[in-house]
Design the sequence.
């Protein structure tokens, strides 16, 4: 089959619009997931009574169910239960933040617990308070160790955004599906979609690699 470049060129404006929406959803999802995951990870790491069981339940539910099911629940079931209205964009962003947050929780918990207790003891011996030790010693070391798995999770979240086509969000994958139906040229459209995702994931990987090099432990 001949590869028709004119199909790709004609589809480019819609592809760019879909890629832009994908980027917005991913940024919101990663940002929300990072905040949620950091908070929940610290709660689990320090075993805060009662709350840690709530966090454990949240992580177990999210990690134990597919993100497609979570998206359908948030978009269709939750508005009915709470009598609210959610746009596809809002539902996708919330879903991605909650999903990423559950995995980031375990990343943060593991990073904090991986820091040798001697670091904490040394800080306390120098006259620092416990919060100061956490902020200035344990925190930076744990963050550096968590950068590689965080980068991996961010890329997974970016790719997971493609699944939101099931709730009608006009992100990149949804645009690809629509353009394939309009043009009948699956080869050209999905090749272009794949290239867009490769560009975005590669860019995100390079950003995380630069942060890792900048924050590396000597």
Sequence:
């Amino acid at each position: 089959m001949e590869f028709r470049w004119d199909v790709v060129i004609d589809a480019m404006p819609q592809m760019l619009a879909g890629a832009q929406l994908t980027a917005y959803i991913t940024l919101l999802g990663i940002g929300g997931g990072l905040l949620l995951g950091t908070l929940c990870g610290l709660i689990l790491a320090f075993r805060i009574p009662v709350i840690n069981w709530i966090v454990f339940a949240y992580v177990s539910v999210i990690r134990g169910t597919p993100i497609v099911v979570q998206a359908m629940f948030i978009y269709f079931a939750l508005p009915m239960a709470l009598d609210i209205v959610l746009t596809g964009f809002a539902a996708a962003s919330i879903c991605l933040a909650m999903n990423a947050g559950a995995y980031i929780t375990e990343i943060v918990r593991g990073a904090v617990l991986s820091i040798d207790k001697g670091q904490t003891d040394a800080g306390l011996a120098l006259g620092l308070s416990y919060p100061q030790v956490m902020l200035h010693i344990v925190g930076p070391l744990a963050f550096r160790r968590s950068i590689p798995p965080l980068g991996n999770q961010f890329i997974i979240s970016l790719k997971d955004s493609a699944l939101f086509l099931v709730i009608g969000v006009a992100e990149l994958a949804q645009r690809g599906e629509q353009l394939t139906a309009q043009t009948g040229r699956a080869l050209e459209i999905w090749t272009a979609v794949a290239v867009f995702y490769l560009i975005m994931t590669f860019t995100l990987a390079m950003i995380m690699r630069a942060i890792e090099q900048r924050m590396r432990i000597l």
